Amino acid sequence: MGIPPTILTIAGSDSGGGAGIQADLKAIAVLGGFGTSVITALTAQNGLGVSGIHAPEPNFVLAQLEAVLTGFPVKAAKTGMLFSQPIISALAERLKDKDFPLVVDPVSMSQSRHQILQDDAVDALREEILPLADLLTPNVPEAELLTGLSAEDRDGAFVVLEKLLDMGPGAVLLKGGHAVSWGRQGDERIDFLALPGQAPQALSQPHVDTDNTHGTGCTLSAAIAALLGAGHDMIESVTRAQAYLNQCLRMSYAPGKGFGPVNHMAPLLS
Ligand code: PXL
After folding, report:
1. Active-site annotation holder among 6, 16, 218, 239
2. Per annotation, catalytic residue among 40, 213, 219, 239
């Protein structure tokens, strides 16, 4: 057995086990990576919602990052819940001279619509983190929050993609899904991948009818990072990660009250 590539997740903890760091480490392991983590915040959470958030001092977030970067040959990373402006600025300063691809999931709300990014952190995310991203993976509300524009219809979504690319990431994956008309085509659910100088590409997956969707965004971005770290190119990493998430949705279940998570183990069970 070769040594698995080290993948880093920089994100929040979900005590409910389905999103955040817990989702990321499971996805990374199943896709063949060795997962390391920098925990930006702790959420007290279950399938019904978030009841509390506690964030460490930015210096301790940085101490975790320093320990991982000096101890492991990180091959790819992702960011999820970054929570506050001071945490974002501290991370951005240290990540400036990274030599691995970075996937940025610009998480702002939990599935239960609890705000997990502070209002004054949006500018820091846009100005300090987006330029460091090789791929940005917003859903529609996050894309609208970052640009101040509507992505409800397809033309609007394309303008939003252009505007997001102008903010500096190497590529943008705008996640459509059921929430917008352009995200639904019969039984297919569509995301658009935009690379600079190219028309956005529609990447679709068959719809899975389930309420157990907790952690989908975290899982997708962690899976993309794991695949980039294993040496796949951007399109291959995104499409394989979408297929992995689709499998996880098909085998999802609710282990407790409320919305259940996706089943990260799916490829090992089928
Ligand atoms: O949905 C994104 C997300 C990210 N990170 C943490 C979360 C959630 C959603 O609940 O709890 C820690």
Report:
1. 218
2. 213
The matching CATH number, chosen from 1.10.10.60, 3.40.1190.20, 1.25.40.10, 3.20.19.10, for 6-147+208-269 is 3.40.1190.20
In terms of pTM, does the model score above 0.85? yes
Instruction: Answer yes or no: 215 catalytic.
Output: yes
Catalytic: 175?
Answer: yes
Residues sharing a CB contact under 8 Å with residue 214, sequence separation 6 or more, in sequence order: 16, 18, 19, 47, 111, 259, 260, 261, 262
What residues does each domain of the chain span? 6-147+208-269
What are 178-224's pLDDT values in tens digits?
789 999 999 999 999 999 999 999 999 999 999 999 999 999 999 99
Length of the chain: 270
Residue 34, classed as helix, strand or coil, is: strand
